[in-house]
């Protein structure tokens, strides 16, 4: 390749293009939280980049023209920007830097800086948006170098900016939870009032705003942990933007050169890469990080909100039904499970119970996803407001609905058992309703509000147990074991019943056919009890219980 000048230049273009992808503005830095702590891996990756980078410069040691100087400079700059990803991982994986430690210490005394507060106007809520470290022991004297939430609410007329700053301040506080740093403000009445007398003051009108604040807060947390976006809020912001502009210009020059030399494939590739680079620049300038940066850097009370091309999330929730999806198959997972079973049991001589997933023991079907309706959002907000933050694991809901005799279903050995019992009961009622509707014997023509809410939340709970048990209070292994036991019992009892009608007929006669005190049995027993109640009362209780 070095014998041909044309091939050498083409190789340089392609090498530079691939190297610049390393410092892409939206690069993923981690796929699980623990990835951010693998500093040795980042060091080895950077070393490999350098080792592969040096020969590119050595290809043409006679640097004579301005183009060669600029080209080598951009190569070094592109390679160095990979440090931005490493830096983003470092700040996401540790809480020991000066700024984080300052925040933790500041929040121990924040409530004492103001004796009065107003959760509507945020007066007295001196949560930090931006702050500079000032030397000395008396850290509270440095408030003149910080921007607080109350200052933004007092100076800005933009409701969107106020809510965005509130989300960012809450995200900063949420970070401490990841590292088990104490949160002294969590037990204060002031913090309680922020939610119930501020965000949820008027539930019917304000619930959408509350969800927007939480949505932005979690978006900040996701970007901070899993992407390099957090580096935009540091000193690396300007170099990243400058590099992106340089890269776009380089792609433009490459396109012109490729067209003039009849290299259409290279030209098309460069056009695509340049479009992606410009798109990433716009995505950054329209992101919440850029808006917060404008507030922090210029102390602006108003910022420009560029239209965002992508939403923060899909506004959907996962759904899984233990009974309805019982015989549905995930063939890819079943094949992988069957191969794993063969390797471990036949080759490695592990016990046959070590891995039971396979063709003859089908695994859990993949989740469905439904759009999170405003009815469900409002129902959750209403329940949270009415409970005043005092959750009772369903007991208070049963008492409100005069069903004290069912409290046994809320008093099980763990949360997973309680959720499964009520989920199975809800699915039993759902199957009964479907079968009766097909026969024309149901007195509920259109699915009621409570029916819709109960079904969606019940299946969401099953989705959490089946696919993300780490988000639930119990240890994820206990949750998984509880679900697998209930699923095994259901499979043994309903092995031959493929249709909903046949499942319903057999479950309806469970007293004669089913014995034992397992979670599945209790769920069917509870569902059979609710079948004797009218539709309105049945779905009212089931909807309330999942809140």
TrEMBL record:
<feature type="domain" description="DUF4220">
    <location>
        <begin position="4"/>
        <end position="324"/>
    </location>
</feature>
<keyword id="KW-0812">Transmembrane</keyword>
<feature type="transmembrane region" description="Helical">
    <location>
        <begin position="69"/>
        <end position="88"/>
    </location>
</feature>
<keyword id="KW-0472">Membrane</keyword>
<feature type="transmembrane region" description="Helical">
    <location>
        <begin position="13"/>
        <end position="32"/>
    </location>
</feature>
<protein>
    <recommendedName>
        <fullName>DUF4220 domain-containing protein</fullName>
    </recommendedName>
</protein>
<feature type="transmembrane region" description="Helical">
    <location>
        <begin position="240"/>
        <end position="259"/>
    </location>
</feature>
<keyword id="KW-1133">Transmembrane helix</keyword>
<feature type="transmembrane region" description="Helical">
    <location>
        <begin position="265"/>
        <end position="285"/>
    </location>
</feature>
<dbReference type="Pfam" id="PF13968">
    <property type="entry name" value="DUF4220"/>
</dbReference>
<dbReference type="InterPro" id="IPR025315">
    <property type="entry name" value="DUF4220"/>
</dbReference>
């Amino acid at each position: 390749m070095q014998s041909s000048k044309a091939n050498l230049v083409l190789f340089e273009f392609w090498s530079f293009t691939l190297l610049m992808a390393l410092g892409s503005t939206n690069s993923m830095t981690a796929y699980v939280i623990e990835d951010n702590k693998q500093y040795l891996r980042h060091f080895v990756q950077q070393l490999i980049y350098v080792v592969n980078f040096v020969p590119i410069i050595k290809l043409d040691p006679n640097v004579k023209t301005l183009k060669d100087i600029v080209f080598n400079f951009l190569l070094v700059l592109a390679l160095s920007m990979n440090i931005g990803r490493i830096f983003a991982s470092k700040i996401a994986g540790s809480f020991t830097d000066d700024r984080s430690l300052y925040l933790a210490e500041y929040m121990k005394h924040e409530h004492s800086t103001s004796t009065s507060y107003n959760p509507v106007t945020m007066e007295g809520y001196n949560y930090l948006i931006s702050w500079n470290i000032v030397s000395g022991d008396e850290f509270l004297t440095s408030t003149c170098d910080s921007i607080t939430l109350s200052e933004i609410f007092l100076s800005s007329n933009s409701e969107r900016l106020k809510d965005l700053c509130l989300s960012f301040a809450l995200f900063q506080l949420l970070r401490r939870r990841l590292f088990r740093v104490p949160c002294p403000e969590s037990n204060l009445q002031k913090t309680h009032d922020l939610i119930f007398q501020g965000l949820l003051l008027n539930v019917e009108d304000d619930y959408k705003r509350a969800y927007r604040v939480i949505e932005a807060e979690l978006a900040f947390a996701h970007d901070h942990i899993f992407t390099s976006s957090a580096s935009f809020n540091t000193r690396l912001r300007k170099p990243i933007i400058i590099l992106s502009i340089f890269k776009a210009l380089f792609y433009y020059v490459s396109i012109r050169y490729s067209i003039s030399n009849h290299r259409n494939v290279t030209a098309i590739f460069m056009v695509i890469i340049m479009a992606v680079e410009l798109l990433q620049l716009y995505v950054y300038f329209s992101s919440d990080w850029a808006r917060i940066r404008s507030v922090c850097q210029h102390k602006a009370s108003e910022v420009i909100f560029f239209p965002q091309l992508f939403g923060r999330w899909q506004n959907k929730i996962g759904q899984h039904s233990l009974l309805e999806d019982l015989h549905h198959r995930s063939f890819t997972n079943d094949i992988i499970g069957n191969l794993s079973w063969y390797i471990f049991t036949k080759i490695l001589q592990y016990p046959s119970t070590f891995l039971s997933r396979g063709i003859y023991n089908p695994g859990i079907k993949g989740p469905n996803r439904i759009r999170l309706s405003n009815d469900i959002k409002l129902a959750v907000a209403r329940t949270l407001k009415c409970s005043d933050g005092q959750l009772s694991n369903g007991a208070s809901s049963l008492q409100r609905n005069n069903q004290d005799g069912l409290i046994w279903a809320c008093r099980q050995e763990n949360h997973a058992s309680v959720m499964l019992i009520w989920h199975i009961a809800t699915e039993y009622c759902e199957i009964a309703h479907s079968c009766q509707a097909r026969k024309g014997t149901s007195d509920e023509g259109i699915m009621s509000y409570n029916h819709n809410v109960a079904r969606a939340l019940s299946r969401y709970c099953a989705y959490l147990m089946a696919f993300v048990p780490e988000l639930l209070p119990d240890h994820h292994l206990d949750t998984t074991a509880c679900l697998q036991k209930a699923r095994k019992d259901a499979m043994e009892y309903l092995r031959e019943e493929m249709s909903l009608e046949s499942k319903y007929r057999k479950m309806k006669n469970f007293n004669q056919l089913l014995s034992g005190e397992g979670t599945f049995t209790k769920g069917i027993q509870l569902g059979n009890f609710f079948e004797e109640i009218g539709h309105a009362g049945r779905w009212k209780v089931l909807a309330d219980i999942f809140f």
